[in-house]
Design brief:
- The strands form 3 sheets. This protein has a 9-stranded mixed beta sheet with strand order 3-4-2-1-5-6-7-13-8, with helices on both faces.
- The protein has one domain: Stationary-phase Survival Protein Sure Homolog, Chain: A, CATH 3.40.1210.
- The mean pLDDT is 92.
- The protein is α/β, with parallel strands linked by helices.
- The protein is built from 7 helices and 13 strands.
- α2 packs parallel to α4.
Length: 259
C-alpha cells in the first residue's frame, strides 16, 4: 500500500507559535504532517544559514521537532537528516503580519519555502495581515485548499507561492487574486536611542509603511481586502536588462589584450 504524502510545516516565529499550530492542524486533515521549526522567534532571518556553531535538533513529541537555527536550517536539516522520506509538500507559516513587496527579501517565512523549492519540494508560504490578536482560522482553511491543489496538480518548475491573507477578506472567489510582487518600504524604521552615557544605539523595526498599490500588486491587493497569491521563481534574472547590457555595455567593457 502506498504511504500517504508527507507534509512538512515550518515557520520563522518558533515551534510554539499559534500560527504554526493552526497551520499544522489544518494540514493534518489532509495527510501525515511533521513540524520542524526554529526553537525561538527567527523573524526577518531571511535566507540565512547557521555556519558558525553546531546545530541541535530536539524531538518535542511525535512528529514535532525544534532546531536551534534559522528557518532555512530547518529545511536543510529537516529534509536531509531528520525525515526518512522526502516531503511531498512544505508549508511555511502562518506568519503574524504580511510578507509583501520588499519584505519578501527579509522574510524567514518565505525563505523557508524558497529553500524547499531549491531542494525540489513544492512549497508555499502563508502570512496573515492585521494586528494581534490574530484569528488564523480563515488563513489555515485557505492553506488547506491550496495544499490539496498542489498535491493534486503540482506547481510549475522552480516556483513557489507567497500567500498573504488580509485582516478582513472579501468573500467569494473575487476575494482571491493572483498577483505580482509590489514594493513596500518604511519611513522612520531606524530608532536612535541614547544610553545613560549619551552614546547612541539603534533599533531597526516599525516605521510607517509606504505601499505600491499598482494594478495586480500583492501590496495593493491585500490593502483592498483580497487574498494575494504571488508565484515566485527561483531564477531572479532580469532578462530584459541582460539583453540591454549585452547590447549597450559590451563595447564599453571590452577587455583588451594584456600588455
Amino acid at each position: 500500500m502506498r504511504n500517504p504524502p508527507l507534509i512538512l510545516v515550518t515557520n520563522d516565529d518558533g515551534v510554539n507559535a499559534p500560527g504554526l499550530l493552526a497551520l499544522a492542524d489544518e494540514m493534518r486533515k489532509i495527510s501525515r504532517t511533521v513540524i520542524i521549526a526554529p526553537d525561538r522567534d527567527s523573524s526577518a532571518a531571511s535566507h540565512s544559514l547557521t555556519m558558525q556553531r553546531p546545530l541541535r535538533v530536539r524531538e518535542l513529541e511525535a512528529d514535532i521537532y525544534s532546531i536551534d537555527g534559522t528557518p532555512t536550517d530547518c529545511i536543510i536539516i529537516g529534509t536531509g537528516k531528520v525525515l526518512a522520506e522526502k516531503p511531498a509538500l512544505v508549508v511555511s507559516g502562518i506568519n503574524p503580519g504580511p510578507n509583501l513587496g520588499d519584505d519578501i527579501s527579509y522574510s524567514g517565512t518565505v525563505s523557508a519555502a524558497i529553500e524547499a523549492t531549491m531542494v525540489g519540494i513544492p512549497s508555499f508560504a502563508v502570512s496573515q495581515a492585521g494586528d494581534a490578536p490574530f484569528d488564523y482560522a480563515f488563513a489555515a482553511a485557505l492553506a488547506g485548499r491550496i495544499a490539496r491543489n498542489i498535491l493534486n496538480l503540482g506547481l510549475p518548475p522552480d516556483t513557489l507561492l507567497n500567500v498573504n491573507v488580509p485582516e478582513n477578506p472579501v468573500a467569494g472567489t473575487t476575494g482571491i487574486a493572483f498577483t505580482r510582487q509590489g514594493r513596500r518600504s518604511y519611513d522612520g524604521a531606524i530608532q536612535e536611542i541614547s544610553d545613560p552615557w549619551g552614546r547612541p544605539y539603534y533599533w531597526i523595526g516599525g516605521g510607517t509603511p509606504s505601499w505600491d498599490d499598482g494594478e495586480s500588486t500583492d501590496t495593493g491587493t491585500v490593502q483592498a481586502g483580497h487574498v494575494s497569491i504571488t508565484p515566485l521563481h527561483l531564477d531572479r534574472t532580469n532578462y530584459g536588462a541582460r539583453d540591454y547590457l549585452a547590447g549597450g555595455w559590451a563595447d564599453a567593457l571590452t577587455i583588451g589584450e594584456k600588455p
